[in-house]
Amino acid sequence: MLWVTWRQHRSELLVAALLLAAVAVPVLVTGVDMHHRYVADGVSACAHAATPADRCEAVVSAFLNRYTEWGNRFAWVALLPGLAGVFVGAPMLGREFETGTWRLAFTQSVTRLRWLAGRLAVVAVGVAAVSLAFALLFTWWRAPLDELGGRLRTASFVVSAPSLVAASLFALALGAFAGAVLRRVVVAMAVTLGGFFAVRITMEEQARPGYLTPRVRVTDPMTDPGTAGLTDTDWSVGAGWIDAAGHRVSSAEEAAIIDRVFGDSAGAVHGAGSPLEKYLAENGLRHYTEYHPDSSFWAMQAVDSAWFLGFAAVLVVATGLVVRLR
Prior knowledge:
mainly alpha, 2 domains, flat
């Protein structure tokens, strides 16, 4: 069973291995240079200094201008889980049902569930291994950029090892389920692609900011713009005003306050010490900022991975039911 599964899917896994080898060349070349420049140009010293020198802003800016574009070029790595679901997961069972070869497989000595488990296990190990290799490679490459800008933002978070591997296994399970239900490879591939990115985007934009309870920083609007005290590695997920009783001011109430001060919200001028901030201070209103510190990275990775692995487990069980009842 394992040998048959390997023969059926070795082409996809070999293509993935070749892709990894091809990508590794520019990643290693630019990565070695970036890590060297990070230390040699004094960027590392600026990033870790309690009181950065005057030259640090220019040094860090030059470094980011030089390597951020490479980071944008490598952003496609975040698409790998979806590609695994489309090109490996969807055909895995969809091809069997579309061509009718499932009838032969189900007449063998192994049970349907054992047949399914064997196929899923072999392919899942291969997908996880390739995903882990990509994640480790790009986590190493991004390390200097992450020390400057943090690891919690999407560009870094989704290509880190736990999240990328878990998302790949979810996409694989989604593809297998779509193939078993739809029994048409192309249709299953399309559904897998749309389904994966719908879940991925929803998780990133709606769920991830609330994986953990964010920290809250409350500041005086007359002396502090609200974000002072946060570092570049902190991830701000919300901001607004609170009244003297500690209650948050709604968007409608904010607009009403601005209208009272300026007569027209379009004329509002923000910033510490502005007329608006003076009004807020006089009426007991303060700024608040919700944020996650960079130290929350691994905890948020664990939550993200748990969600995707949970989704994958549900899909595997559902696929087993479909195969058993087919």
